Amino acid sequence: MASLYLNGLSTEQYEELKRTLLETQKGSCFICDEEIDPELQSTDVDHVEPISTGGRDDVTNFALTHSSCNRSKQASDLRVARVLARFARIRDRTMVDGRGPNLSDILGEYGGAKYPLPVKVQDGSIHYSLDKAGDPAVHKVPLYKDQLSGLPYFFARLPIQYLHHDDRINPRNIGGSLSRLVEEFHRGYPQLHVSLAQLLIIPLKEVTNQRDERGAQNHHQAHEDLNF
What predicted TM-score, i.e. pTM, was given to this entire model? Predict the structure, then answer.
């Protein structure tokens, strides 16, 4: 949708707006995060949130992009388009290795899969700590038992640093058609299933011995494996 605000600017005012946006965005394109060189590249000023979905037609709702990024964006909302552009970069990197991206690639990009989850079973509950993520509390959640399989299970909300990908639970790659899913998350009503998890509990002493013998790469064996 055309912008009455932009149409009302003089050439000098429009160029000043672009300079201001470029400085605010620290010299990078709002969509692809790559550098903008105004002397070499054409640029667009566009609404971050489209007017059609309630976005304002004023300076608080504009962003500067490469013209090529704006023409090829995968969503009208530039915030969603930026997320999809980031995923496209991850996908391109994995294609060099002859594979598609999985959750492990996403977690690695955003600081996930850093720590094992320290847990203990006590009095029918799971006790766990998130101290390496800056949370000093000991958390406690009920431990349930599945009537069909007999397997114990529990529910917990964990920060991304404690989330790991496990190919045994979900060996599939992430598909390329993410626009609708990302938009659902962005608008606050994602259509989600409860995450599957598998927790392998190894005594701390055994984990320490394994690290001493084979190095820190074995530390991941005591982590919480979550897949989406």
Answer: 0.74
Q: Are residues 66 and 129 in the same domain?
A: no
Contact yes or no for 154/124 (Cβ under 8 A):
no
Domain count, the chain: 2
Evaluate whether residue 91 is within a structural domain.
Answer: no
Rounded mean pLDDT, 189-200: 69
195-206 burial, b for 16+ CB within 10 Å, e for fewer? eebebeeeeeee
User: What is the SS3 assignment for 27?
Assistant: coil
**Residue 224 in contact with residue 163, Cβ under 8 Å?**
yes
Three-state SS for 36?
coil
Whole-number Å distance between alpha carbons of 122 and 192: 31
Of 26-40, 104-118, 176-190, the one with minimum mean pLDDT is 176-190
